[in-house]
Design brief:
alpha/beta, Chemotaxis Receptor Methyltransferase Cher, domain 1, 7-stranded mixed β-sheet, 2 domains, 10 helices, transferase, protein-glutamate O-methyltransferase, globular, Rossmann fold
């Protein structure tokens, strides 16, 4: 199959579909990227052209292809302890604060994190490593780290918890020895006791999560792809899911500072919900 790039009309249709389904706004400069990624799905399905594939994924029979399509056009790349200051705060301030609150009987011995748009799992497992590093203080606690993503393939990789050297380049040797097992081909697997803290599920950030509120939410390196309307929808979901007194950690490019007026700003990337 030898296809040129999407035409203007085809690219516009794909951009509109991606936005309506996921809230992600694809820039006009991404035609080559989207062309290449859709072409992968054409090869995988045997469909002959961009327009025919577009019609297929919008049909009832093609709904099974919608998730692989979204996987193909969504970028999922990260590594452990990305934005090191966030994890330093988690280890040195947030976790000790939770322990003190529980000791004073001002909160139950439970701890819930949400890694929104968790990609292949490095972010939620980074949270888990910080908790595991203080496991004596959290003995007997119910610790739940929920990772969500739109990409089924990313979630499959997160559940497998096998990573290469690039993903682990910020994990210090002591933590690597304590919390990872060596795997073939120079890869590393997160140990079962760390993996047990994390669970993963599919979720579209435009819709409510349901369930118990979270004590800490990480929302990083995802909203750069959203326009103002979609960002506000996501912020509304996040604020509803954040527990009273809970902390929100955002990435430097999310562009939502003006939408967080109901939260107390502690750092440029850290906000807290009132009790």
């Amino acid at each position: 199959m030898n296809l040129i790039e999407l035409t203007d009309a085809e690219f516009a249709k794909y951009r509109d579909l991606i936005y309506r389904v996921s809230g992600i706004r694809i820039g006009e400069n991404k035609r080559v990227l989207i062309s290449n990624r859709v072409r992968r799905r054409l090869r995988a399905t045997g469909i002959a052209g961009y327009s025919a594939y577009f019609d297929f994924i919008r049909s009832a029979a093609g709904q099974v292809e919608m998730q692989p399509f979204l996987d193909a056009v969504t970028t999922n790349e990260t590594y452990f302890f990305r934005d090191a200051a966030h994890y330093q705060w988690l280890a040195d301030e947030f976790l000790p604060g939770m322990v003190r609150e529980a000791a004073a009987r001002r909160r139950p011995r439970t701890l819930r994190f949400w890694s929104a748009a968790c990609s292949t799992g490095e972010e939620p497992y980074s949270m888990a490593l910080k908790v595991a590093g203080r496991k004596g203080e959290f003995a007997g606690w119910r610790v739940e780290i929920v990772g969500t993503d739109l990409s089924a393939s990313a979630l499959t990789a997160a559940r497998a918890a096998v990573y290469d050297e690039r993903a682990l380049h910020r994990v210090d040797p002591a933590d690597r020895k304590a919390f990872f097992d060596e795997a073939p081909a120079g890869r590393w697997t997160v140990k079962p006791e760390v993996r047990a803290m994390a669970s993963f599920r599919s979720h579209n950030l435009l819709f409510p999560t349901g369930g118990e509120p979270f004590d800490c939410i990480f929302l990083k390196n995802v909203l750069i792809y959203f326009d103002a309307v979609s960002k506000q929808k996501v912020v509304d979901v996040i604020l509803a899911a954040l527990a009273k007194g809970g902390s929100l950690v955002i990435g430097p490019t999310e562009g939502i500072h003006g939408m967080l007026g109901g939260l107390e700003k502690l750092k440029p990337w850290l906000y807290r919900k009132g009790s």
